[in-house]
Structure to design on (837 residues):
């Protein structure tokens, strides 16, 4: 159950960026999983460089935001300027995913499992909790509170919510939509960076695990309600826990299939998700 | 010279298989505008069904027919929940489906032989065609199929059926108020595409005389996508050209491998990354591909 | 009770459609007799287009019933309603811009053999023969609409007014008996508007029933045999144009919404 919460936090962090992209830019960013993977490796290499978990984490978050902004300037904005449909954006995101994944494979080597070298202290109560789990959950909670603060208490957040709900209206009301989008990428991809970094702390990494990460994040987005970051947080935790509990009945390879099944069920019976669309 | 010829045959066989596979995707994406990122799953379903049935005693021709029916049937079934979904949802649902099929192929050893795969199934006209010429026979079989598929699909594109599909991909509501059962057409497109994918998968297994999950990894779907977009969505001839170009690129760069100061493995990965970048660049600067019609572009 | 419903082209009973808390159509009921031109007016946001979407089957109502010539069609999907003879045009034209004008029309012909895969492959000659007939009919329609010269143009290159005519033509290819037209005169120059008005009158002569959403009150009152007024999701008044013009509830509805 605890491992479910841990993985749920990571899924939730990734899902927030995914759902923001869906809400504001109206397309499913299939490159998200592979970018989280890239960030996980960046986190690993930063840690090897700095020998400090905190520094490595911050560096990864910043790296994530930079990548997000860079892609916006080079890929996403030009696509929008050409009037690309959301379907075209999805196709582009797949191209990006493949490119990112294979550059990573080229750099990181064949299917080697990289183990993160970090001390794990097992504290026993009735339950065995590792310091890594505590770190992951704590970092995730801080990040989610930060997101909440930005969205609810700042002008930027208000603008983001408005743009997500009614893009045409937002533009007409004088909101600088491009600025909102830039910050969306900065925030969403920074969170993706954090998600990747935290993931690497407790799991071995494979360069081709992009889709393996993407599916639960997507499930979280849909279960929580597309476009709703709080839904993504809740959905992430739910999916993480459900997938973990499924290990009782099913072999571990089918863990992701469980999240996927949850997504299908929600899509068929309650497409709006648990928290609905509005932020 | 002999070796060069044999190599050419190999490449042409693979081009043909990918052409069939991509033609199937072209029906779904190019004609019907359905975004299917799990196409390879149907390759696997068709191929594994044929092999498993045949290994359990079912005569090959029947196994092939059943395999095609299963691939098409599953494709049609998948559209039932997915058809109510918007395009993007369909994308992620198909990705998930393809991953699940991959897991099953990899993990259910009792059924699929797991990672080790399966061997020993009958091959078409095994006894009749002498072993030395079997590769040429496969080449002929595959390209004969490509030709037949191409002719049949061209007829469809230019027919009222094709016209309905074109209307669906531009504006479903128009199709509906013009009396067209949009869901039924989408299902038909998906079914046809899945059958072609299943057949392509079978040919791959026949060519290798062996089937294993690694032949049906998600990357194959991506290959089909780049072939279709490169050639020009909804253009069948474009798809064939795209398949040829892709393979020229992949095998051509393989010849560069000794010259380039990188390991084979790294070079191969970079090649794939380049294909990914190519897709992004295509979508940005020439979404209609080589033969597509910019005026009729619906995305 | 149901037998008398047969003389109604359309009957709506307590139709309700809610969008995220807002009741766009609220227990809306009305009867529409056959073979006339009916106007549907009302302030912005009254729910007129939503009502049309429900009537044509593009949206499913939350509750209520719809009858077409006595037959209940509430659960019937949009394409089946079109096949039964209900035509629909849109406020913002949905011409198929990436398709040629002639093909736009040919699309809407019914019972096309060539839309069946088996027929395409196994009965090519029958398909070709039928295509020829459909093309003839489509070309006739284009001549009727004065769009003949544009037949090979991509519909995207047409002017707004021409697109409107094209959409009307496409709908007529269905050979409908009930037509739902959403603001057919919107954004159209006066000459073309007159033309469209004439077409609509001719259609009534041919026995069709036409229900038009329109914002221009004068035009609606001039054209219609009967007028329905919709406000806040309900039909609040119906009657002949003169009495509607003087109806207090109608004036209230328009003034009340700040129009």
């Amino acid at each position: 159950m605890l491992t479910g919460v841990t993985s749920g936090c990571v899924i939730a962090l990734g899902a927030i960026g995914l759902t923001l992209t869906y809400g504001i830019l109206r397309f499913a960013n299939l490159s998200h999983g592979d970018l989280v993977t890239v960030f996980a490796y960046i986190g690993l290499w930063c840690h090897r460089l700095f020998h400090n978990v905190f520094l490595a984490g911050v560096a990864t978050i910043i790296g994530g935001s930079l990548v997000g902004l860079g892609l916006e300037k080079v890929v996403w904005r030009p696509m929008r300027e050409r009037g690309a449909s959301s379907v075209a954006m999805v196709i582009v995101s797949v191209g990006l995913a493949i490119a990112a994944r294979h550059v990573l494979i080229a750099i990181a080597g064949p299917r080697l499992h990289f183990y993160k070298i970090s001390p794990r202290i097992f504290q026993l109560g009735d339950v065995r909790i590792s310091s890594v789990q505590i770190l992951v959950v704590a970092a995730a909670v801080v990040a989610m509170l930060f997101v909440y603060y930005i969205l609810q208490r700042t002008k930027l957040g208000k603008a983001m919510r408005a743009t997500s709900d009614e893009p045409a209206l937002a533009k007409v009301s004088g909101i600088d939509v491009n600025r909102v989008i830039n910050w969306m990428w900065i925030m969403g991809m920074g969170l993706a960076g954090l998600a990747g970094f935290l993931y690497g702390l407790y799991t071995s990494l494979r360069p081709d695990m992009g889709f393996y990460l993407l599916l639960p994040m997507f499930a979280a987005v849909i279960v929580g309600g597309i476009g709703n970051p709080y839904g993504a947080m809740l959905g992430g935790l739910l999916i993480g826990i459900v997938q973990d509990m499924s290990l009782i009945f099913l072999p571990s390879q089918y863990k992701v299939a469980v999240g996927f099944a949850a997504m299908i069920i929600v899509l068929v019976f309650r497409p709006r998700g648990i928290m609905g669309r509005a932020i | 010279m002999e070796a060069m010829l044999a190599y050419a045959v190999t490449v042409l066989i693979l081009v043909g298989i990918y052409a069939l596979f991509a033609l199937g995707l072209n029906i779904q994406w190019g004609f019907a505008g359905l975004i299917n990122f799990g196409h390879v799953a149907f390759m696997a379903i068709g191929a594994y069904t044929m092999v498993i049935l045949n290994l359990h005693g079912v005569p090959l021709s029947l196994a092939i027919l059943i395999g095609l029916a299963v691939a098409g049937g599953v494709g049609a079934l998948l559209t039932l929940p997915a058809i109510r979904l918007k395009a993007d949802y369909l994308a992620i649902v198909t990705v998930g489906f393809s991953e699940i099929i991959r897991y099953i192929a990899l993990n259910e050893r009792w059924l699929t032989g797991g990672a080790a795969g399966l061997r020993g199934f009958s091959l078409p006209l095994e006894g009749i065609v002498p072993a030395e010429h079997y590769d040429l026979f496969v080449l002929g079989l595959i390209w004969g199929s490509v030709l037949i598929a191409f002719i049949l699909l061209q007829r469809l594109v230019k027919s009222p059926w094709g016209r309905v599909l074109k209307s669906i991909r531009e504006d479903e509501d128009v199709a509906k108020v013009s009396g067209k059962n949009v869901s039924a057409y989408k299902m038909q497109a998906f079914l046809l595409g899945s059958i072609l994918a299943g057949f392509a998968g079978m040919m791959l297994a026949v060519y290798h005389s062996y089937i294993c999950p690694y032949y049906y990894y998600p990357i194959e779907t991506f290959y089909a996508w780049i072939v279709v977009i490169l050639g020009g969505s909804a253009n069948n001839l474009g798809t064939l050209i795209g398949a040829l170009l892709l393979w020229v690129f992949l095998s051509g760069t393989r010849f560069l491998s000794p010259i380039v100061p990188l390991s084979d493995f790294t070079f191969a990965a970079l090649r794939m990354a380049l294909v990914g970048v190519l897709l992004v660049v295509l979508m940005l600067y020439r979404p209609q591909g080589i033969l597509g019609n910019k005026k009729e572009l619906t995305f | 009770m149901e037998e008398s419903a047969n003389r109604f082209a359309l009957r709506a009973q307590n139709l309700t459609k809610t969008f995220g808390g807002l009741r766009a159509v609220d227990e809306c009921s009305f009867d529409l007799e056959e073979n006339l031109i009916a106007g549907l007016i009302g302030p912005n946001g009254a729910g007129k287009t939503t009502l049309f979407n429900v009537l044509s089957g593009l949206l499913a109502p939350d509750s209520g019933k719809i009858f077409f010539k006595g037959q209940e069609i509430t659960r019937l999907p949009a394409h089946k309603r079109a096949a039964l003879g209900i035509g629909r045009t849109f406020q913002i034209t949905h011409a198929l811009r990436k398709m040629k004008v002639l093909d736009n029309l040919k699309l809407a012909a019914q019972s096309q053999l060539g839309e069946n895969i088996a027929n395409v492959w196994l009965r090519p000659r029958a398909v070709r023969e039928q295509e020829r007939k459909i093309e003839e009919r489509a070309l006739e329609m284009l001549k009727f609409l004065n769009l003949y010269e544009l037949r090979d143009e991509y519909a995207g290159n047409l002017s707004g007014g021409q697109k409107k005519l094209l959409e009307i033509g496409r709908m007529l290819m269905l050979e409908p008996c009930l037509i739902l037209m959403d603001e057919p005169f919107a954004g159209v120059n006066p000459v073309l508007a007159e033309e469209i008005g004439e077409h609509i009158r001719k259609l009534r002569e041919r026995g069709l029933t036409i229900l038009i959403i329109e914002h221009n009150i004068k035009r609606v009152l001039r054209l219609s045999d009967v007028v329905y007024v919709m406000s806040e999701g309900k039909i609040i008044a119906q009657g002949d144009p003169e009495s509607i013009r003087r109806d207090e509830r109608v004036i209230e509805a328009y003034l009340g919404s700040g129009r």
Remarks:
- Chain C touches chain B through 40 residues (CB under 8 Å).
- Residues 4-94+176-256 of chain C form a domain with the Rossmann fold fold (CATH 3.40.50.300).
- The first strand of chain C starts at residue 8 and ends at 19.
